[in-house]
Specification:
The protein is mainly α. It is built from five helices and three strands. Helix content is 47%, strand content 9%. The longest helix is centred in the last third of the chain and has 23 residues. The chain starts with a helix and ends with a helix.
Length: 152
């Protein structure tokens, strides 16, 4: 069984993936393997019953298990900590550790992110589109966007 089926489909898997990517980005600076008593504040704009919320719950389970309880995720669903823009600003300020946001909410901070909203950015032949999309993201788009985000 492919992992994206566990999340309820390819689109939902992408949401799960981006949440996981954000977690790894945050933890890479904090030393995930050596973490002891680290509690992270995770803000999501949707309810916990939404696919992103379910992805965050799955991530919470995996992170707490793999860190042997050394890392805990406190999840704040439903916009409890503000709008997507406020989540992003809180993350930049260090008040919120992790967020899930759509790419368009990042555009005021990093205009180059708008490329992700372009139609036909990825090929749509169904058989190989998933693998092609990740190849494009990992080897072309992500390195370019990372450089722009580091400047912000």
């Amino acid at each position: 069984m492919k992992i994206y089926r566990r999340c309820g489909g390819m689109k939902k898997f992408l949401g799960c993936f981006f949440v996981t990517f954000l977690l790894l980005s945050v933890l890479s600076g904090r030393g995930f393997a050596d973490a002891k008593n680290l509690t992270l504040k995770f803000a999501i704009p949707t309810t916990i019953d939404d696919f992103a919320g379910k992805g965050v719950l799955l991530m919470k389970e995996v992170v707490e298990k793999e860190s042997k309880g050394g890392v805990k995720l406190n999840i704040f669903p439903g916009g409890q900590l503000g709008s997507m823009r406020e989540h992003w600003e809180g993350c930049q300020a260090g008040v919120i550790d992790m967020v899930t946001v759509i790419s368009s909410s990042l555009e005021p901070f990093v205009p180059e992110v708008a490329v992700l909203g372009m139609p036909f950015l990825f090929p749509n032949d169904y058989e190989n589109s998933f693998e092609k999309m990740w190849d494009i993201m990992d080897n072309t788009v992500q390195p370019l966007l990372n450089n722009h985000m580091k400047k912000k």
